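stuck on whats below:

***
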Amino acid sequence: MSQVFVHDGSRAREMSLDEFCAHADTIPFSWVHADGWQEDAREVASRCDHMPEAALSALLAQETRPRCTLMLHGALINLRGLGADNDMSGDPLVSIRLWAEQARVISVSYRPLAAMAPVRAQMLAGQIRDPGDLIAAFAQQITEALDPQVAEFGDGLDEIESALSDHGPAEARRQVSAIRATAISYRRFIAPQRQALERLSLADAPWLEPEDRLHLQEAADRCARMAEELEAVRERSALAHEELTDLRAEQMNSQALIISVVALVFLPLTFLTGLLGMNVEGIPFAHEPWAFWGVVGVCVAMAAGIAGWFGATHWLKR
């Protein structure tokens, strides 16, 4: 369902699309939000404004990256933020597309955005009075929600490194791989989002007030810091993965060494028992009553001697 919010200079309220279209030219500021999956999304966007066809196509595109493009009398802004209720289907970040011009903003999203509810509340509370306020509110809400998420990646790596002995290399490698994959997905959108916000803050748009530009620049700086943190998480994850791989290899080598030592201990014993176990005449002491225990004693002595030699030469510590 499409939603229309207006601010008439004294108060903000929500109205129907038909009522808005009938009085669109007399409203000081309006915000129209459409669900991209609705069949009438294109009609809603085209009824509410006379935007360029290129902007309309970009507004309804399903695959987007953060961007800011100035077109004629307006600007097309794509932003990415966390989905509502931890919606992680598809890309980890949800996009919102905005067409902003003097006194009007049209937005389209295909998945619920977590920042939508607080921005809607600010709009109805009368705190948003122009397109610059709305875009700055979205930028601030998105970055405030993303900041702790990005910080959790570094904290997660710290916990994995400190609890490595509890989880074991295999489990730790899976956790590190998951953190690295998510950090890469986040950075793919946060880095260009920083550029989009910086470009918008410097754009020659009459509906951007100095305070709006400051808020946009602040959001861009936070995106830059998050992009740097995500890059550090990616590099730390790669190093941690290599260390875990080396640790796993060392453990496997240690286990292989123990198996080799045990095999070497029993190799001469196997030869001796195989030699004495041949079904031929002439085996010494074959008919003596103490022969079996004698062979056992010889085997024990040989095993003790070989094990003592391995211990004296520190083979088990290599």
In short: Residues 3-247 form a domain with the Beta Polymerase; domain 2 fold (CATH 3.30.460.20). The chain is about 60% helix and 15% strand. The longest strand covers residues 74-82.
